[in-house]
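hey
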């Protein structure tokens, strides 16, 4: 096992366990595990690496779940979502390198508060323009706050009747 500098074996094993349990939470309930993992990572990891580490964990977890459920993927929605994702990631990457760490830390905290107590997405988020905008905004935000799954899920839930 490769242990990152600054972490001991016990903390590394604990974080691996947290990753597994929060992935199970999302698989069981449909959402929430990513945000919980983000908060748990913040207890032990330096702020500058929380989002990249969280992103790699999410890639593995969501990639595995997609591989298991590929027959149920709405490819039409995915094709509509992809161009906005590309634009959001590009815009976020250009801005991310110029922000001081305190701004991303504040972004993460405000994002978690919004997920808990913020209003639902407006109905205007539906349709081709809404899909593009939702993809761009959630992809942009993911570079700063990590777990945008609940926002994407709220959007997808409004576009489909079958989960």
């Amino acid at each position: 096992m490769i242990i990152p500098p600054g972490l001991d074996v016990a903390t590394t094993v604990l974080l691996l366990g947290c990753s597994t349990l929060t992935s199970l939470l999302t698989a069981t309930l449909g959402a929430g595990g990513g945000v919980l993992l983000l908060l748990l990572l913040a207890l032990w990891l330096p702020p500058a690496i929380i989002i990249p580490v969280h992103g790699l964990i999410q890639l593995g977890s969501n990639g595995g779940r997609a591989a298991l459920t590929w027959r149920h993927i709405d490819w039409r929605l995915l094709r509509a979502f992809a161009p906005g994702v590309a634009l959001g990631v590009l815009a976020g990457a250009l801005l991310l390198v110029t922000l001081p760490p305190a701004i991303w830390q504040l972004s993460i905290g405000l994002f978690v508060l919004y997920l808990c107590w913020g209003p639902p997405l407006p109905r205007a988020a539906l349709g081709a323009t809404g899909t593009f905008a939702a993809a761009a905004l959630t992809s942009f935000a993911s570079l700063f706050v990590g777990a945008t799954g609940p926002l994407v899920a709220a959007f997808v839930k409004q576009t489909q009747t079958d989960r």
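The helical segments are 9-29, 33-44, 47-68, 75-96, 101-117, 127-145, 149-159. The two ends are 37 Å apart (CA to CA).
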